[in-house]
Design a protein that fits this description.
Layout lengths: L1 H9 L2 E2 L2 E2 L5 E4 L2 E4 L7 H22 L4 H12 L13 H19 L7 H7 L5
Antiparallel strand pairs: 1-2, 3-4
Helix pairs in contact: 2-3, 2-4, 3-4
Length: 129
């Protein structure tokens, strides 16, 4: 199987031109990789890192804003990560990491630390995740 894969990689043509094979490629801000086991893992890690950066930015800029403004900002900036269910293959470890990152971003934006239910806070603020 490995030898056949190497033959295909070395002989891909577009018209008269031989195409080179790369392990990863960035296209429109999305990283496409050739890793079949964890194809979207690097992209999810990148998105989670971006969310932590956004949480720090929102905390520093809007720490004195009211709850309504913070709720609107949070729903705008943090809900898109839950498209990760469409990325394949997503492992349980990555799903848990995404959940913990979202919860920590919530705590950072709203200034809520300590023992409390983040899920209950999402519901009370009418935030969808």
């Amino acid at each position: 199987m490995y030898k056949l894969d190497q033959v295909i990689r070395n002989n891909v043509l577009l018209g008269e031109n031989k195409l080179s094979w790369v392990e990863q490629f960035d296209y429109l801000g999305y990283r496409i990789t050739n890793n079949n086991k964890n194809r979207d893992g690097a992209e999810i890690e990148k998105r989670l890192r971006d969310l932590r950066i956004r949480a720090n930015m929102l905390h520093s800029s809007f720490s004195k804003a009211n709850e309504c403004v913070k709720s609107r900002l949070f729903s705008t900036y943090f809900n898109q990560i839950y498209c990760l269910g469409l990325w394949i293959p997503v492992t349980k470890k990555l799903q848990d990491k995404a959940r913990v990152t979202i919860n920590n971003c919530f705590r950072k934006v709203f200034g809520k630390w300590g023992i409390f239910s983040v899920s209950r806070e999402f519901v009370s603020r009418n935030l969808t995740t």
